[in-house]
Every structure is written in C-alpha cells, then in structure tokens.
Write a structure and sequence with these properties.
By secondary structure, the protein is an alpha+beta fold. About 45% of the residues lie in helices and about 20% in strands.
Length: about 240
C-alpha cells in the first residue's frame, strides 16, 4: 500500500466527516414556501407573469426563494411570485425551481439531474442531497454522483496532464496534480479525487458510494456501489 495514498484517503475521510457534521445552510427569505433554483436557463425573475415581462434579474442555480402565489398564463405556463430578498421579488417560471416542501418535486429534480451531464449533473445532484434528506430517491442520486464523478475523473486527468506537462520544480509531481485548479469547483461541491501516481490519473474517492451502502444497504443501487468500490480498491498496489 502506497503510504501517500493511505494518508490522503484518511485525510479525505476526516474532511467528509467534518463537513457532514458542520455544514449548515443559511435560511431562505421569508414570505412563503422555501424553494431553490435548479434550472438557471429558465430562472429569469420578471416584473409580470409573462415570458416577455420586464426582467428584474436572472437568478443563479442554488439560489433560495420564497413562493407566495402562482399564476397560469393563457398558454399554460405557470409562474410563481417569489421573494428573493426583502427588497427583491418577482415572477419566475415554475420549472426553474423546486421546493422541498412540495410533493413530487424530488422526482422532478431527479429527472432534471438525469437529463444533465458532467459537472452540471453533480451540482444539481448536490442540491437534491442537501435539501431532500428524506426522499426515497436518494439512493439513485448518490449512485449518479459517484458514477458521474468517476467519469469526470478521466477528463480531469487528461486536462491536468496537458496543462502540467513540462512542470519541473522541487515539489513532488503528484502534488501538482492534487492542486490542479480544475478540481476546485468539484471540491466546492464536496466531490474529491484520489491520484494514482503509477498511471498519473485521478479517480473519484468513492464517498457517495460509501454513503449509499451505509444508509441504504438493501437498495438495488447499493449492489452497484459495492462493485464500484471493489474496482476502486483494486487501484491500490
């Protein structure tokens, strides 16, 4: 067993435990039912409930809002009136947001996660895991996070190798890879990677698969997660 890998794994596991215990989320705005922006492509906040209504601002993915009422246009588009801050409010298309307090919105978000790709899929899956803690669909989302992260690891490996080619200093080679800036946005989504020095490639550290097995051991998804972790274990010399 490579001591660098063992130390890195132990360190990452400690970080994950700390994050799960310490991370808290700021409360959303007052004035209605909590909701979150999940599809920024539709997240135009408008002064009137119309697709061509005056734009107030465009909301970012993950932004919290409070729903107070709704209105359906003649062509069937549902708009929700939301508070963004104490001074900012307006109308937003229903499909742009989900509400943890609304039945069926976990399924709607899962459908959006499945239709997403790469990093976008991970971000939307993180919103699901953070805000739908009791959903029976969590095993599916945890498996998606792990599988997508491992698929992204191959792309990250290629990008890092290309950008770091020719780097020569006194620092160990593997430290350049583990400090690669392309990892930063994944780290902010609490997705971390291990680095295999023999193949100069990243691999997902398996945290979502482990959580899936721990919390949902009898789910069909746990069977695949165990296979994935077994494959990950084979990477150690």
């Amino acid at each position: 067993m490579n001591p660098h890998k063992l130390t890195l794994k132990a360190f990452l596991l400690l970080i994950l435990v700390f994050l799960s215990a310490e991370i808290s989320f700021p409360k959303g705005p007052a004035g209605g039912r909590l909701a979150l922006v999940v599809d920024e492509r539709l997240a135009a906040l408008r002064r009137t409930p119309q697709l061509n209504g005056p734009l107030v601002r465009r909301l970012s993915r993950g932004r919290k809002v409070a729903i107070s009422r709704s209105k359906t246009t003649p062509d069937g588009v549902v708009f929700l009136f939301v508070n963004v801050t104490s001074r900012t409010r307006g109308w937003i298309q229903r499909e742009a947001i989900v509400s943890p307090g609304r039945a069926g919105d976990d399924r709607r978000l899962l459908d959006l996660v499945k239709a997403s790709h790469g990093f976008d899929q991970i971000v939307r899956a993180r919103i699901f895991l953070d805000h739908f803690p009791r959903s029976p669909l969590r095993p599916k989302v945890l498996l998606l996070v792990g599988n997508t992260a491992e698929a992204q690891a191959a792309e990250l490996s290629r990008d890092a190798a290309r950008r770091l080619n020719g780097t020569t200093t006194n620092a160990p080679d593997f430290t350049y890879f583990l400090n690669y800036t392309g990892l930063d946005r994944y780290n902010r989504q609490r997705v971390t990677f291990l680095f295999d020095q023999s193949t100069r490639s990243f691999h997902y550290d398996g945290a979502a698969w482990r959580e899936l097995i721990h919390r949902h051991p009898n789910s069909p998804e746990a069977t695949e997660a165990r296979k994935r972790l077994a494959e990950l274990a084979q990477l150690d010399p």
